[in-house]
Write a structure and sequence with these properties.
The structure is a homodimer. By secondary structure, chain A is an alpha/beta fold. Chain A has helices spanning 4-11, 15-23, 30-42, 49-56, 78-91, 108-116, 134-140, 166-179, 195-211, 228-240, 253-265, 299-311; strands at residues 61-65, 95-99, 122-125, 145-148, 161-164, 185-189, 220-222, 247-250, 275-279, 293-296, 328-331, 334-336. The first copy, chain A, has 3 domains: 4-47, 434 Repressor (Amino-terminal Domain) (Orthogonal Bundle); 61-164 and 300-330, Rossmann fold (3-Layer(aba) Sandwich); 166-297 and 335-341, Rossmann fold (3-Layer(aba) Sandwich), CATH 3.40.50. Chain A binds a DNA duplex through residues 3-5, 13-17, 19-20, 23, 27-29, 32, 47-57. Chains A, B: Residues 2-56 form the HTH lacI-type domain.
DNA sequence: CTGAAAGCGCTTACAG
DNA sequence: CTGAAAGCGCTTACAG
């Protein structure tokens, strides 16, 4: 492996000049730059990142904790998210370092260690939970981070975040179903009350109200778990009611698949007799028939914003200016229309 | 951040002794060790990894290229694999660095760069394809790597690998179905001929032959794509044949889900009227009803073996001893029995 | 525009 | 068992 010194000797300049050729080429005279560049190519020189990091104390590595399954819904799009995150990181010359950690506050030792030993510059958090302790802790330690997902139920959100407007997504799904002629739209939700679920539910409720559609509590079913079975059962309820629904907005693709199955069982046709939509546009959505209309989170944009915020000018690195507003970005999801919600 | 020097001053020893306390504690006298350890704790010292790596030229980081979807089957268990890989890496004091690269030989520039700039010590490869160029290239460059999955159709497999015995898995599924009384077992396969598909198919064929069951070509259907629809259609074929099958071994969970749907549509009960098995034990398997019997790859063991091989004594670092056999580990998958193949 | 020198925080032969 | 010293390969004020 060639070193800076060898390149310098070869190009007959000082190491400083070679370093500048790489990091501040405008400082060199064109002819010098060209000569150095030639030597770099000839010797196939690659700067040693460890040496650079030792000097600059920046590793250009971003930590991401791989969520441990079983977590239900989220991991069906995890590879999409990771791919987007990697790509965004690489665009800014960085990479993603993966690690595992216990959930809750116990895991913070791992985060702290990774940062203290300078394996990473900062963290991207996801799988944010209601009352997630990580954000507050990292902020207190002044360790750079950005969160995908808000910490719900907190009076103040610690630190910067990027999130998708679930309410807007569900509202858009309702409007889409309305436009295809549906007038009684049910909602399939999750069991435990979470900020995420309430957010999406509220979007359904608001849109129905605005369109003059029914939106009473009976139309929103909390499924006991995020499975196809539970989705099918809840769908059966909604179909067997005195006034059956003619469309269903599901809070996840899995539940929507359950709805699809129940329709199938009854000889009803999704997209014709009823409209069905899911959430996440997971790989499953395009694998069923009719394919599932689903609400897609803009993964690439999410990832880009996350990296932008994390690598941008430090929000609060000094500890002063604490009152400065955190960086917060709420992105719009998109309804990907497929067969299950009709031709429109 | 405390440094080695500061700890040394605090403990009133040389930096060398502190370093030894961390890396070779047996060299210190117990009382010295204790004193140093106390100083380390008091100052909350964490060794700077970049400095260490610069010195030792080992970064303790393993590169893994995130596969770009859509790739069909594999990404449903990607998070399981990543989690296992991370855990195994951490057990050996290492971490996973994620990156993206173009497929094929173009991507090798990325691999080379990552290694040359010392961002990683080596690579774990997965999504191995027939005629995958990466293995040969990395071997030639003497860049450490280990592959999850064999390069099929090569006369000699370049470099060490870990793989799962797909044939054994499918054979086990056939035997399991036989034990639950099935006597005419179909096979659902993929469109393009790949080493992976042929391997699994051969397991079905061999087991059927050994049990005296039919295994003619008509019983093995190549689905045009890895979707629920395709699986359902192929299942319909197998059921409408002159001699209908009473069980189906599917090469993927998705295809098995298609089989389940087709049975459902016909009023047939999986696990009672027919036995169905999938492959990969993806999150989907436990989310349907009846839950899907599926062949599970031992992810934790795979990951452990991969890291063991990669971090073990260099197989061929010197370039001599080229004839030494590569490290190769073929692991047994496990049939996870659920409702879709009957109570047994 | 270019160069000589110090230093980032470790580890590792080498002496004592 | 312990210590003084060199060096891993860079970057960065500081002079010239």
């Amino acid at each position: 492996m060639a070193t800076l010194k060898q390149v310098a000797a070869h190009a007959e300049v000082s190491v400083q000049t070679v370093s500048n050729a790489l990091n501040a080429p405008h400082r060199l005279r064109p002819d010098t730059l060209q000569r150095v560049t030639r030597s770099i190519e000839l010797l196939n020189y690659r700067p040693n990142r460890n040496a650079r990091s030792l000097r600059t104390s920046a590793v250009e590595l971003i930590g991401y904790c791989v969520p441990s399954w079983p977590d239900g819904q989220a991991h069906l799009v995890m590879d999409q998210f990771l791919h987007a995150l990697c790509t965004a990181a690489e665009t800014s010359g960085r990479h993603i370092l993966l690690f595992t950690a216990p959930t809750g506050v116990d895991g913070m030792l791992v985060y702290d260690d990774l940062h203290a030993r300078r394996l990473v510059d900062g963290f991207v958090l996801s799988q944010t939970e209601t009352h997630d302790p990580r954000h507050g802790w990292l902020k207190e330690q002044q360790i750079p981070f950005v969160s995908f997902g808000r910490v719900w139920k907190e009076s103040t959100q610690p630190g910067p975040w990027v999130d998708v407007d679930g309410a807007a997504g569900c509202a858009a799904a309702v409007r889409h179903l309305y436009e295809t002629g549906r007038r009684r739209i049910g909602f399939l939700s999750w069991p435990k009350i979470s900020g995420l679920a309430e957010d999406r539910l509220s979007g359904w409720r608001t849109a129905c109200r605005e369109l003059g559609l029914p939106h009473d509590a009976k139309l929103a079913v909390r499924c006991p778990e995020d499975t196809i079975d539970a989705g099918a059962q809840a769908t059966a309820e909604l179909l067997d009611a005195d006034q059956p629904v003619d469309a269903i907005v599901a809070i996840s693709d899995i539940l929507a698949l359950g709805a699809l199955r129940e329709l199938n069982r009854r000889g009803l046709r999704a997209g014709i007799d009823l409209g069905i939509t899911g959430f996440d546009d997971s790989p499953l959505a395009s694998v069923v028939s009719p394919a599932l209309t689903s609400i897609r989170q803009p993964m690439d944009q999410i990832a880009t914003e996350l990296i932008d915020i994390l690598t941008g000018p430090a929000t609060d690195a000094t500890g002063n200016g604490d009152t400065r507003p955190s960086t917060e970005r709420l992105l719009e999801p998109e309804v990907v229309i497929r067969g299950s919600s009709g031709p429109g």
